[in-house]
Write a structure and sequence with these properties.
Blueprint (H helix, E strand, L loop, with lengths): L1 H5 L4 H6 L10 E3 L10 E5 L17 H5 L4 H17 L4 E3 L22 H16 L4 E7 L22 E2 L3 H8 L1 H8 L4 E4 L3 E2 L2
Parallel strand pairs: 2-3, 3-4, 4-6, 5-7
Antiparallel strand pairs: 1-2
Helix pairs in contact: 4-5, 5-7
Length: about 200
């Protein structure tokens, strides 16, 4: 199905699909009416439909739901979030956020699932299934070792702030701790993975 769709596109239309066009979502892929493609809306999902969308439910945060150790609750929360996304016309949920929360000052700790790789992986698995059971594509993020917000992307605030941090670790640690929840998301059939902006072992 994908090949039959892509073969119809001009080079300009293919490029069009890879660029954000601005709009109401965090990411917007514009429509291509000529081939009956209605476009995509990508939106952040920490505790439900975000980014200023009105009349959305604010669900309990990831760090709180994971504290229950209750797989059924993990799944039911994700189904409810997926239903809300679907109802708002969102195609891609930019979550789960499955970084390990090992830095207490990391600004995203509340949306993740804690610092235990097994438990984080369990929630990632059921979050992915619950979101996608409602026809919304889950996006495991941020692959990999995005453990702090300071200097994570190298976006310059001024002439002296162009540093991008590097997460330095050995292969065993990366696989045993940081990769685990991503692998769980993949095992659940996650439709998308978002990369991190930090460097690794540099």
């Amino acid at each position: 199905m994908t090949k039959s769709f892509i073969i119809q596109l001009t080079l300009e239309e293919k490029c069009h699909l890879t660029a954000d066009v601005g709009g109401t979502c965090a990411g917007n892929i514009a429509s291509l009416p000529r081939v009956n493609f209605s476009g995509f809306c990508l939106l952040d999902t920490p505790s439900g439909v975000g980014d200023g969308v009105l009349s959305s439910t604010a669900f309990v945060s990831g760090i709180h739901i994971v504290a229950t150790w209750h797989r059924n609750l993990f799944y039911r929360r994700a189904v409810a979030i997926g239903k809300d996304f679907r109802g708002k016309g969102v195609h891609y949920a930019l979550g789960p956020m499955v970084n390990m929360d090992r830095n207490a000052r990391h600004g995203r700790n509340w949306e993740g699932f804690g610092s235990d790789p097994y438990l984080s992986g369990e929630d990632a698995f059921f979050y992915t299934q619950g979101i996608q059971d409602y026809g919304v594509v889950a996006t495991a993020k941020h692959y990999i070792c995005n453990e702090q917000d300071t200097h994570r992307s190298g976006v310059m605030k001024d002439a002296n702030d162009d540093i991008v941090y590097s997460a330095n670790l050995d292969d065993k640690t990366m696989h045993a701790i940081y990769l685990w929840p991503f692998a769980s998301s993949v095992a659940a059939g996650v439709g998308s993975i978002m990369c991190s902006a930090n460097e690794i072992n540099n």
